[in-house]
């Protein structure tokens, strides 16, 4: 009896392993196909592929993340914010959804929300360089807002304009050199 159970368990494990080997390449193909559509700027097709995939596997964090990226690229920030927000709730250990959510907030001028969200990304992964860079950008935007407010309140303060100009300089496009 013990031997029969052992053989049955081994058979089940082998079947599970075989199933995984069959499923994993098809999953990889789905990701690759979707990423290829995104790289080709075929966002509507990519979104349809993602939605089809998520109909069967709604919890897949990678595909849900890709959906948020596609929604952002389609100019649907509210939908992308919703997608990334749900991802941060379901997978709070992943820093990337926080980072992308923060970028969307910053794009809407919601710099305080972006700051808090980037701090969450960094808390989940202190070595996430992109989140640190984005947080720096948000701090510069917040500084610019503070200097503008100070200038409105005290237009005679000559120390403020140079500081404000420094914050504005950070985001000026750099001239391209012609060779």
Describe the protein.
With 179 residues, this protein is an all-alpha fold. Helices cover 79% and strands 0% of the residues. Helix 5 (95-107) runs antiparallel to helix 6.
Structure keywords:
mainly alpha; disordered N terminus; 179 residues
Question: Number of DSSP strands?
Answer: 0
The assigned structural class equals: mainly alpha
Radius of gyration: 24 Å
Largest sheet: none
Q: Give the CA-based shape.
A: elongated
The number of helices is 8
Distance between the first and last residues' Cα:
81 Å
- What fraction strand? under 5%
Sequence of secondary-structure elements: HHHHHHHH
Mean pLDDT: 86
User: Segments where pLDDT lies below 50 for 5+ residues?
Assistant: 1-24
Helix content: over 70%
């Amino acid at each position: 009896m013990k031997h029969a159970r052992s053989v049955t368990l081994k058979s089940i494990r082998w079947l599970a392993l075989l199933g995984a080997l069959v499923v994993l390449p098809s999953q990889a193909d789905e990701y690759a196909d979707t990423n290829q559509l995104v790289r080709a700027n075929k966002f509507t097709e990519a979104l349809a592929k993602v939605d089809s995939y998520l109909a069967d596997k709604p919890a897949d964090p990678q595909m849900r993340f890709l959906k948020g990226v596609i929604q952002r690229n389609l100019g649907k920030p509210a939908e992308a914010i919703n997608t990334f927000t749900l991802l941060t709730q379901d997978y709070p250990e992943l820093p990337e959804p926080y980072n992308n959510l923060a970028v969307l907030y910053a794009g809407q001028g919601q710099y305080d929300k972006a700051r808090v969200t980037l701090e969450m990304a960094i808390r989940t992964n202190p070595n996430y360089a992109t989140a640190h860079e984005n947080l720096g950008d948000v701090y510069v935007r917040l500084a610019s807002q503070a200097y503008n407010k100070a200038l409105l309140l005290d237009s005679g303060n000559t120390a403020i304009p140079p500081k404000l100009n420094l914050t504005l300089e950070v985001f000026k496009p750099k001239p391209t050199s012609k060779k």
